[in-house]
Structure formats: C-alpha cells, structure tokens
TrEMBL record:
Protein name: MICA1 monooxygenase
Pfam families listed in its UniProt record: bMERB_dom
Keyword rRNA-binding listed: no
The organism of origin for this protein: Vidua chalybeata (Village indigobird)
Coiled-coil stretches noted in the UniProt entry, renumbered to this chain: 23-50
Keyword line: Coiled coil, Membrane, Monooxygenase, Oxidoreductase
GO molecular-function terms, A-Z: monooxygenase activity
InterPro entries associated with the record: bMERB_dom, F-actin_Monoox_Mical
Length: 154
C-alpha cells in the first residue's frame, strides 16, 4: 500500500470521525431543545391560566405575568431558530458524508488505467461524477440558505 493511499485512508477516517462527533453533538443539542420546549410550554400554560383566572389581581401583577409570557415566547422563538439551524447542519453533514463516499468511489475508478477500464467502468465513473455534482449543488443550496437566513436575522 503506497504511503499516499494510507494517508488518504487515514484522512478519510479522521474526517468521518469528526462528522460523527458533530452529528452526536447536534443530536444532543436537539434533545436539549426538545426538553426546554416542553418546560417553556408548561410555564406558558401556568402563566396563561394565571392571566385568565386572576382578573382581580393588581395591574402590576398582570403586567408582570404578561411580560413573563412574552419572554417565554421570545425564548421559544430563539430555540426554534436554533433548531432549524441544527436541522440544516444535519442535512449538510449527510451531504458531506455522501460526497466523501462518492469521492472515494470516483477515485477508485480514476486510479484505474484507461486501457483496463471497461465500458461499464466508464459509465459508472460518469454516473458517480454526475451524483457528485448533484451533492455539491445541494450543499451549495444549503450554504446559500444559511447565508440568507443569517442576513435576514441581521
């Protein structure tokens, strides 16, 4: 096994491990967001009941409850934004993994000498190249989506 092939294989494993770790971190954060959503929902229900049932409460108290409710809504909206960003990141990771697999397949066909390639090999190589371009285009769309989202938030 030549050195450059071992280096490529090692780098591929390292990048795969990094993607796996990022995917785990994203999954954990999504679970944390889900728990926080439920907690915010419960707090919101309590505040709504207080606002509806306590009509004789002082105006200051009702204003405080209303402000707390608005704060919960704002917090929930921020979490929803973070969740949508994480879902985009998940899609990006999937496409990145797919791109790496296609790169590896394409490299194996391209390393084969042209004289030894069968028409089926050439057809498979072209198909993989086509799929690779599609994956790159999808990743580009995700990046554009993230950029548009970031600019709209500013």
């Amino acid at each position: 096994f030549p050195t450059w092939k071992r280096t490529l294989a090692r780098r591929a494993r390292e990048s795969q491990m990094k993607r796996f770790c990022r995917a785990q971190a994203i999954q954990r954060r999504l679970e944390e967001i889900e728990v926080t959503f439920r907690e915010l929902e419960q707090q919101g229900i309590k505040l709504e009941k207080l606002l509806r049932d306590e009509n004789e409460s002082p105006a200051d108290q009702q204003t405080q409850w209303t402000n707390q409710l608005l704060y919960l809504v704002q917090k929930k909206n921020n979490l929803m934004t973070e969740e949508s960003d994480l879902m985009i990141a998940v899609q990006e990771l999937k496409l990145e993994e797919q791109q790496c697999q296609l790169d590896e397949k394409l490299r194996s066909y391209m390393n084969k000498e042209d004289a030894l390639k069968t028409p089926e090999d050439e057809k498979a190589e072209q198909e993989i190249l086509k799929q690779l371009v599609e994956v790159v285009n999808k990743r580009n769309v995700l990046i554009q989506l993230q950029e548009e989202k970031r600019l709209s938030e500013l």
